[in-house]
């Protein structure tokens, strides 16, 4: 299998609007060739009896069902706050804006 050439890397860089030096073109050509070789090796190993997966382990949703429940009244919540104003928590100003 022929490797990725400098010209192909330069073409990809132009498409991605990247400016690469001559050394970077050589460096990335070797890296991209290694990556494509690794992907090809995985493709060779995966047979038709292996189903495609997005994760090696089966995943299940562990979240509880979304149920409407009553919440605490604002007065009770704000009674524990260091400062409150207009039924909201009052916090120190952190930006220099007025």
UniProtKB/TrEMBL annotation:
<dbReference type="InterPro" id="IPR036113">
    <property type="entry name" value="Asp/Glu-ADT_sf_sub_c"/>
</dbReference>
<comment type="function">
    <text>Allows the formation of correctly charged Asn-tRNA(Asn) or Gln-tRNA(Gln) through the transamidation of misacylated Asp-tRNA(Asn) or Glu-tRNA(Gln) in organisms which lack either or both of asparaginyl-tRNA or glutaminyl-tRNA synthetases. The reaction takes place in the presence of glutamine and ATP through an activated phospho-Asp-tRNA(Asn) or phospho-Glu-tRNA(Gln).</text>
</comment>
<protein>
    <recommendedName>
        <fullName>Aspartyl/glutamyl-tRNA(Asn/Gln) amidotransferase subunit C</fullName>
        <ecNumber>6.3.5.-</ecNumber>
    </recommendedName>
</protein>
<dbReference type="GO" id="GO:0006450">
    <property type="term" value="P:regulation of translational fidelity"/>
</dbReference>
<keyword id="KW-0648">Protein biosynthesis</keyword>
<keyword id="KW-0067">ATP-binding</keyword>
<comment type="subunit">
    <text>Heterotrimer of A, B and C subunits.</text>
</comment>
<comment type="similarity">
    <text>Belongs to the GatC family.</text>
</comment>
<dbReference type="GO" id="GO:0016740">
    <property type="term" value="F:transferase activity"/>
</dbReference>
<keyword id="KW-0436">Ligase</keyword>
<dbReference type="GO" id="GO:0050567">
    <property type="term" value="F:glutaminyl-tRNA synthase (glutamine-hydrolyzing) activity"/>
</dbReference>
<dbReference type="InterPro" id="IPR003837">
    <property type="entry name" value="GatC"/>
</dbReference>
<dbReference type="Pfam" id="PF02686">
    <property type="entry name" value="GatC"/>
</dbReference>
<feature type="region of interest" description="Disordered">
    <location>
        <begin position="78"/>
        <end position="98"/>
    </location>
</feature>
<dbReference type="GO" id="GO:0070681">
    <property type="term" value="P:glutaminyl-tRNAGln biosynthesis via transamidation"/>
</dbReference>
<keyword id="KW-0547">Nucleotide-binding</keyword>
<keyword id="KW-0808">Transferase</keyword>
<dbReference type="GO" id="GO:0005524">
    <property type="term" value="F:ATP binding"/>
</dbReference>
<dbReference type="GO" id="GO:0006412">
    <property type="term" value="P:translation"/>
</dbReference>
